Amino acid sequence: MSATQRVQQWATFARTWHIYDCTWQNPYESAQIIRKHLMGLHKPIFHPMKQNLIFSLFPDDCGDHVVAINTKEIALPGNEWQKRAYFHHTGYPGGATWTLAWELHEKDPTMIVKKAVYNAMRGNLQRRYTMQRLHLFPDDKVPEDILANVSNQIPSLRKVPERLDKMDPDTVKTFPKIMDWPDDYILK
């Protein structure tokens, strides 16, 4: 076996760390991509029967780690913030609660992405253990020990437009205009 083949084999079986930026992304569409990397569906050695081995200490699980940043900046389509409700039960009688998406997001900015990924892995008998490889952060401040492991970036589904207040003032001035508003124009 040549050195190149050895490196390819090592890269196939190793758990790699991926980073995913959730800024302005739909968490339910993002969950499908994150799920693919957590379960190892993108690897050539994946086999569906490996996901259902319960009696061993999960040596055949080939999934990777995913670090999701900026979960505070997710975007739900339409009026999902007001209409979508999340169910939680404490396990005690009368412990059932329904929480709207905007309330849940205010309490914990990572919870909507976490619930979306967990729901996307329906049918995976090991999803509780697979979720341990998902690392969620509400902003882009990631601890150095986790950031040192990251070797790949998962591309975002949608391109995030650059905000006008974050652009360089010279770029804004030189940007071509369709029309110039008169100085005495008043917006109502």
TrEMBL record:
<dbReference type="GO" id="GO:0006412">
    <property type="term" value="P:translation"/>
</dbReference>
<comment type="similarity">
    <text>Belongs to the universal ribosomal protein uL13 family.</text>
</comment>
<dbReference type="InterPro" id="IPR036899">
    <property type="entry name" value="Ribosomal_uL13_sf"/>
</dbReference>
<dbReference type="Pfam" id="PF00572">
    <property type="entry name" value="Ribosomal_L13"/>
</dbReference>
<keyword id="KW-0689">Ribosomal protein</keyword>
<keyword id="KW-0687">Ribonucleoprotein</keyword>
<dbReference type="GO" id="GO:0017148">
    <property type="term" value="P:negative regulation of translation"/>
</dbReference>
<dbReference type="GO" id="GO:0005762">
    <property type="term" value="C:mitochondrial large ribosomal subunit"/>
</dbReference>
<dbReference type="GO" id="GO:0003735">
    <property type="term" value="F:structural constituent of ribosome"/>
</dbReference>
<dbReference type="InterPro" id="IPR005823">
    <property type="entry name" value="Ribosomal_uL13_bac-type"/>
</dbReference>
<dbReference type="InterPro" id="IPR005822">
    <property type="entry name" value="Ribosomal_uL13"/>
</dbReference>
<dbReference type="GO" id="GO:0003729">
    <property type="term" value="F:mRNA binding"/>
</dbReference>
<protein>
    <submittedName>
        <fullName>Uncharacterized protein</fullName>
    </submittedName>
</protein>
